[in-house]
Amino acid sequence: MPGRAYATRRILRQPTRHAAYAAGKGLAGPDRLSGMSNVLTAVAWPYANGPRHIGHVSGFGVPSDVFSRYMRMAGHDVLMVSGTDEHGTPILVQAEQEGVPPREIADRYNRVIVEDLHALGLSYDLFTRTTTRNHAAVAQELFRTVYKNGYLIEQKTSGAISPSTGRTLPDRYIEGTCPICGYDGARGDQCDNCGNQLDPTDLINPRSRINGEKPKFIETEHFFLDLPALADALGDWLRSRQGWRPNVLKFSLNLLDDLRPRAMTRDIDWGIPVPMEGWEDNPNKRLYVWFDAVIGYLSAAIEWARRSDDPDAWQRWWSDPAALQYYFMGKDNITFHSQIWPAELLAYDGKGAKGGTPGRYGELNLPTEVVSSEFLTMEGRKFSSSRQVVIYVRDFLARYQPDALRYFIAVAGPETHDTDFTWSEFLRRTNDELVAGWGNLVNRSISMAAKNFGAVPAPGELTETDRALLAKSAAAFEPIGQLIGTHRQKAAITEAMRVVAEANKYISESAPWKLGEDRERQGTVLHTALQVVSDCNTLLSPFLPHSAQRVHELLGGAGVVAPQPEIREVDDLDGGPGYPVLTGDYADVPAWAPTPLPAGRELAKPKPVFTKLDPSIVDEELSRLGG
Q: Is 536 annotated as a binding residue?
């Protein structure tokens, strides 16, 4: 089906069991992933008020993609979903400043973000947006059911307005001193320093972030999520979590100490209408952006299924108790994923103190794990677009290879503690590790084999040294898979690069370039080296999918080993404006296991896989930074 109509439907990929997996080999995930599993990778929704910088994708983007790519190779059926978050105050304020409708801002940056994540190779099954009619319908269904079950209560509260304009001043645009930790710069909805949720009236010396004036507080009415009625259920769920990063679980459990009703509607005219009688026609009342944004994980899965040949397929990840769900984000979003979203789900399922029954979607699964990364800073400073202490994803990828950025994030990113990105360290990691390590192994092995044999040489009798290297390479799959499956990606890629180093050492000590008169031994050494190159390429492909495909082709391989996402223009399923999505077919991937390299396979003409960087880039990039 040509044109836009084609893009509104896609064939639902079926779960695939690789031969190695079916034989009990190659599955290297943690015990809780033994056997075939449906795995939901729920990736934080980037906000569509501007392009995303490399700090953003270090938290939600690359870690989630590495995990998903590995899980598919290990035999699991993965659904990776997200989209742009497009409601709320910042877009509204920016639209007012530019004199354009909010939808224009959302449309502009939705496309920018889609293009950037595509260029980075993030393998979403569906990357959509929150301004679709499908998402609005799903969010309103959850709201109605949570209300029906008694967990949304109407309360009067203080709302802020701007004295100079008389307009509502949303929580996010009020700042002041946090009453809990004393941080001067806390927002009216949350303190980014201590992570606690706040109300504008909690702040000491509140002021408008727009013009600095002191807000005026007036009485207004909103729906509040009754978190105290969900406290026991939330606590039981959190205390049952195993394998979480300790800082994430500790922070989440600490949130239980101060549970109070939280407003789930806002005085704003940009967002999803409140689906209650007397409210839905009110142009100044909308669902709180954080109530609807987290529902996007469910609505995106439903949209993906609706665009397939099985509209109920989303239930395999949301209704099956055996399914697993992993949520990826930066640490500033933990609260919303370990408290607000689980509370919404528990309330929808009717599992709080007030009881209740699930709505039309049936009982929905709670997260298996909240996988939160820390912050990435830049040259010792926090990212700041206004101060030009920033590099956006598209600007980075215009000058450097995507796998160079992916490698840096994997090996030196903010996995469990804040990490500083410096251009000198990026230069060193790229040149000394990617180029001189992995790139050198690929180039020297294939170059010598192509020059001397023109194809993968047949091995002769193996020595103990040959066998030891091959055994080390084959044995690396299980522990590296375990590390990726338990979100220890830094350790995983370090182990893979350790095999690369062993292979480079093997070639240097075996010196195949000196074995011209002993063709059998020369062929054996080069066959061994090429087999390890193939193994390492599989081990590194979740991290470095662009170069994995190139190495596969240099080794004479056919087909796709590291599928890339594609951008498709689609129509809104329910009649709204069209938009671009990221999607792809990732089912046909190699197994997470060594694959014997056939002798006689013709080798491609060798060429460098990675670009060596000139040291001058450090000064050039530093000169682009502000201040």
A: no
